[in-house]
Design a protein that fits this description.
The protein is an alpha/beta fold. The C terminus is likely disordered. Strands 1-2-3-4-5-6-7-8 form an 8-stranded parallel beta barrel, surrounded by 8 helices. It has 11 helices and 8 strands. The longest helix is centred in the last third of the chain and has 22 residues. The structure holds zinc ion. The site of zinc ion has 5 residues, from loops. The site of zinc ion (ZN) has 5 residues, from loops.
């Protein structure tokens, strides 16, 4: 069923666990993510957004994700990830997305506020919630690039408070040393900064979002969950699982010209990788959301 509203996020923030946001690119990734949510009995967010639209086509992927989520026994949000385009945001809201991320992190502060405010206004008309980003993340959404974090782009706690008050945004993605994709060296989060941001946006509570959690050491991750992070985006881990399963299955698939066996292996690998992540994101909440 479709997971509406921010209750699950707020519960997660209070309980020290987090909802995963998994990127879906095609039928098999949607199926794998949905199956993981059903098996785990925990809420999950399917992120079918800008960059996967380029592969699958916007209408096709939107309908696919919404159909899968709406017909599943699991609680599944359908989310537009990293959008800078108000027309795209509106299209997803009109289709029935439960949340959108407006990414004005590349803009000057005042312009980020203006863009985010407009996205919030549009989302309210459709009963959806909005994630915004303050501070910029290094790395690429879809390909691991060995990017290095730059302190200069990190989220400032005081600005975060100002930003949240000015925009009315429901969740805030932060830059605290996290990097999109796998990195050459383990990522260290600035947990002190994260705690200060969390404190700055506690009344009213705005759950924080951590992008780029693939390969993040588990103690760093749990440190983030204890500091208000209630949604964690994981993408590269699922992509790698899909690719490895594909490589393993390819010889037998080729010998029988059995393309479905290849896709099925990819789907099952995504499911298993997603299940592993879900477990990592629930350190103190086993069964609490079942
Ligand atoms: Zn991201």
């Amino acid at each position: 069923m479709l997971l509406h509203g921010t209750e699950a996020l707020k519960e997660a923030a209070a309980a020290g666990h987090a909802l995963p946001g998994f990127v879906a690119y095609n039928l098999e990734t949607v199926q794998g993510i949905t199956a993981a949510a059903e098996t785990a009995g925990r809420p999950v967010i399917i992120q079918a957004g800008s960059s996967p639209f380029k592969h699958a086509g916007r209408e096709a992927l939107m309908r696919l994700a919404l159909h899968a989520a709406g017909h599943s026994a699991a609680r599944l949000g359908v989310h537009l990830d990293h959008s800078r385009d108000l027309d795209e945001i509106t299209a997803c809201l009109e289709a029935g997305y439960t949340s959108v991320m407006v990414d004005g992190s590349h803009l000057p502060f005042a312009e980020n506020i203006a863009l985010t405010k407009e996205a919030v206004r549009r989302a309210r008309d459709h009963g959806a919630w909005v994630e915004a980003e303050l501070g910029a993340l290094p790395g690429d959404e879809d390909v691991s690039t060995n990017a290095v974090a730059h302190t200069a782009a990190m989220t400032d706690p005081q600005q975060a408070a100002e930003f949240v008050a000015a925009t009315g945004v429901d969740a805030l993605a932060v830059a605290v040393g996290n990097v999109h994709g796998f990195t050459q060296h383990p990522v260290r989060l600035d947990l002190e900064r994260l705690a200060a941001i969390h404190e700055a946006v506690t009344v009213p509570l705005v759950p924080l979002v951590l992008h780029g959690a693939s390969g993040l050491p588990v103690e760093e991750l749990h440190g983030a969950l204890a500091r208000g992070v209630a949604k964690v985006n994981v993408n590269a881990e699922l992509r790698r699982a899909y690719l490895e399963a594909t490589r393993e299955t390819l010889p037998s698939a080729l010998s029988g010209s059995n393309v479905v066996s290849l896709w099925a292996a990819g789907r099952d690998a995504v499911r298993d990788a997603a299940l592993e992540v879900i477990g990592r994101l629930s350190p103190r909440a086993e069964g609490a959301d079942a």
